[in-house]
Amino acid sequence: MESFSLILAIVVVTALAFDFTNGFHDTANAMATTISTGALKPKVAVAMSAVLNLVGAFLSVEVANTISKGLVDETGIRPEVIFAALVGAILWNLLTWLVGLPSSSSHALLGGLIGATIASAGVGAVHGDVLITKVMLPAVAAPVVAGVAAVAATRLSYTIGRKTEGKAAEKGHRVGQIASAGLVSLAHGTNDAQKTMGIITLALIAGGAIAPGSNPPTWVILSAGLAIALGTYIGGWRIIRTMGTGLTDLQPQQGFAAQTSAAAAILASSHLGFSLSTTHVVSGSVMGAGLGRKGGVVRWSTAGRMAVAWVLTLPAAAVVGAGAEAVTGLGDWGTALVAVFLVAASAAIWKISRRQVVDHTNVAPATPATGATAAEEPAGVVTQAIAAVSPPPAAPVPDGLTATIPAPASALGAVPAPPASPATAASPPAAAV
Description:
Elements: H1 6-36, H2 42-56, H3 62-70, H4 79-98, H5 105-121, H6 128-160, H7 167-206, H8 218-234, H9 237-246, H10 252-272, H11 278-292, H12 300-328, H13 332-353, H14 409-412, H15 422-425
Helix pairs in contact: 1-2, 1-4, 1-7, 1-8, 1-9, 1-11, 2-7, 2-8, 3-7, 4-5, 4-12, 4-13, 5-12, 6-10, 6-11, 7-8, 7-10, 10-11
C-alpha cells in the first residue's frame, strides 16, 4: 500500500470530489435523449447509466496514462499543483451546472492542470505536442464527426423505417435507444472516469507514493469508477433538460441515431488514448440528429451559448488553477485557505441552485398554464426552469359570431350574456354590450 502524506490524501479526496461532479455534470451525455423521448423513466435511466459507468471504468487505462504520463512533466509536479488544478475544474463544473450548460468536465480538468503547472514550473512543463494531438484536435474534430454521423444515421433510420411506421416501429426504436444509451454510458466510463484515475496517479507519482510511469493502481480504478457512478446516479437534471429539449426536439429514431454515433466516437477515442470531451461529442450528435430529420430544427441560440462555454472552459479553469497554485505556494496555510474557499464556493452555488429546483420530477415538465412540455421551450432559455407561458391575446371576433363563439369570462371580467334573440340581434351596434 502506498505511503500517504496529508496533502496527498487531500488531493485524492478532492480528485474523487471532482469525479463525482463529473458524473452528475455528464449524466446528460448518456441519458438526456432517452429521457426526453420517453424511452426510460428518469430515475431508471440514471441508475442504468451509473452501473455502466462503473463497468466502463475497468475496460481501459489509455486515457489515464495520457494524463498521468503524457500531458505534463510529472517529475516537476508537486501534489499542491494537482490540488490547485482540481479546484479550478470543480468550480467550473459547478458554475456551468448551475446555469444548465453542458460544458466539458474533461477540458475543465485539463485546463486546471495546465494553468497550475505553468504557474508552478513554467510553460516548458506542459507537453505541447500531446496537448495539440490528444486534446485540442479531438476537441474540434470529434463533435463534427459525431454530428455528420448522426445526420446520416438519422436519415437512414427514417428511410429504413418508412414502411414500418406505427407502434411496433416506435417500440423498436425505443428499445434500440435504450441499448445505445447504455453503450454511451459504458463509453463514458472508459473515457471520463479514467481522467480522474490519471490525475490521482499523477498525484501519487508527484508525492513519491508510486514510481514514475506507473499505471493506475487497482484501488484508484475502483474508487474513481464508484465516484463517477454515484455522481451519475444523483443526476445533473439541469443539464439533462438542456441536452434533451434545449437543443432540438427528438423523436426515438433521432435519439437512437444520436446515441449510437456518440458511443462509436467515444469508444474509438478511448482506444486511441484521446482525452476526449464526451459532452462535445454528444452535443454534436444531438444537433446532427436534429438536422437529419426532415423538418427538424436546432435551437442555434442554445448551441451558441454552449459553444461559448466550450471555448471558455480551458482558459477559465486554467486561470483559477493558476491562482489557486499561487496561494498554495505560500505554504500549508495557503493550501488550507484554498480548501476553505473551494468548500465555501461550492456550498454557495448549491444554495443558489435550491432557489429553483430541477430534478427527476420536472426535468421535462408541463407548464401549469398551457400544458406545454419542455420540448416547446423557446430557443435560448436554458438558465432557468420552464416558466408558465401566458396565452396570446385573443384575435378579434367577426360580427355575427358572438352567439356561437363567446369570449371566455376571464377575458371580459364578467359572465357572458346569453345569446341574443333575433330581435335584439337586429338592434344597432351601439346597444350591444
